Amino acid sequence: MGVFANLWRLARTGATFQRTGAMEEALAALDAPRSIRVAARILGWPLGPLGLKGDPALPPVVRALTALGPAYVKFGQTLSTRPDVAGPKLARELRVLQDRIAPFPDAEARATVEHELGRPVEEAFSEFGPPVAAASIAQVHPAIERETGRRVAVKILRPGVERAFRKDVEAFHFIARTIEVLAPSSRRLRPTAVTRHFEGVVTTELDLRLEASAAAEFKANTAGDAGFRVPSVLWGLSAKRMMTLEWVDGDPLGDVDLLATRDLDLPELGRFIIRSFLRHALRDGFFHADMHQGNLKVAKDGTLVALDFGIMGRIDPYTRRVYAEILLGFLMKDYRRVAEVHFEAGYVPADQDLETFAQALRSIGEPIFGQDASRISMARLLAHLFEVTERFGMETRTELILLQRTMVVVEGVSRTLDPNLNMWKAAQPVVEEWMKANIGPKAVKRDLEATFKVLSRFGPRMPEMAEKLLTKLAEDEPIRVADQGLELRRAIAVGVVAGLLGGLAGAVLVALAL
């Protein structure tokens, strides 16, 4: 897609918001300054006729997002979990984007199944019903597996969804590059890198074989988690554009009125959702990164059932430790330690002042504690956080994008069950439990074991590596004899130390095994 095509795509986005009446409503819900509203009205008026019409039966913002395509729907799904940011009315309207978008015809779904499995639908399923849920990327059909007679859920990608996403992502790349050129100060937010990250997430979501693999891994990780369940994958009935899971009965988490009629402790369920997410992120480094209400059910026995594993997050052990220390520091109100962790991890440039940054962190944390959660404006809090990151030159960490986004979504979901829920208090037991297990003598022992295992694997190759280094030094351009001797001594020292470490690693592993 060229420059002009991208410009047309952007112009049509604004025109669609104008034509559907979504522009004014969205800006009002997000509490945009009056000057921006006036400018949008002036610029949008002549563009309106160029916009997509959408479905007139839908509310304006929902109508605009669904008309524009799946990438825009994804953005709307995130806002649907944050009534404190988007406003209660708009968040409630956007909830239909989670799983109640207009489905595509059964005939196209059946054609996809037959193409992917290489056989008629009737040979694989004795029953294949109409869709029970439809979202931006795929829809779900209930079915009965012919071979075993068990109920299953068949997820099928929307026809043409790959091309639609590709067009949106190309436009987003264009926006990112334009922003970096026109506003150099925005480069710390790394818009191009963020867009690449988004593209990677979307690419994974559009291959249901990868989603099936993620579901299987997530199920294995959480097998021992009481009160949490992941359905099993039927690999023989899954392919690139379709995936089959066992059917799980339950009430949708988004229907709070229905859940309230059951014998459930909704505030406790809200806390359980937050704790489950943190446990998966910290303990496993692999978590569900799209935990909105449409992807969660509550089974008859109160078990929380997770669905839709197209967007999963993964963080390495070091990042988990940094994240946990930051959370615990906020919980303990140790803002200096939180500041130190940011500097140690390289999140804040080294030329910034530690004490001043700690003071800024206090201004973020203190308003959260000791207040009724319903009085905390997440929109203002996020705006303040953005100001702090800008002041101290903090760059966007692409490895934390999904983690931070999911935490915002999970808190929003939990607060629909308990408007007074305080995320920090709910998180504290999990963070403290993880810190006890990962900071201390046991953690040091475990880290040393892992280090020695790595060294032991390289032990047999140490002589070869030392020989290659010495050969390379000998073949280099002539250098001063003194320097050559120094380099030779260094190379020999490296080889000796490497050999000793390899042998020591082997000895330690044997001792540990005994």
Structural commentary:
With 514 residues, the chain is α+β, with helices and mostly antiparallel strands. The chain has four domains: 3-97, no CATH class; 162-202; 250-439, no CATH class; 442-513. It is built from 23 helices and eleven strands. The strands form three sheets. Strands 1, 2, 3, 4 and 6 form a five-stranded antiparallel beta sheet that branches. It has a four-stranded mixed beta sheet with strand order 5-10-9-7. Strands 8-11 form a two-stranded antiparallel sheet. Strand 2 and strand 3 (138-145) form a beta hairpin. Helix 5 (70-80) packs across helix 7, helix 17 (354-365) runs antiparallel to helix 18 and helix 22 (462-475) runs antiparallel to helix 23. The N and C termini lie far apart (62 Å). 34% of the residues are buried. Mean pLDDT is 81; it is low at 488-514. Keywords: Cell inner membrane, Cell membrane, Membrane, Transmembrane, Transmembrane helix, Ubiquinone biosynthesis. InterPro entries: ABC1_dom, Kinase-like_dom_sf, UbiB, UbiB_kinase. This is 2-octaprenylphenol hydroxylase. Residues 97-342 form the ABC1 atypical kinase-like domain. Belongs to the protein kinase superfamily. ADCK protein kinase family.
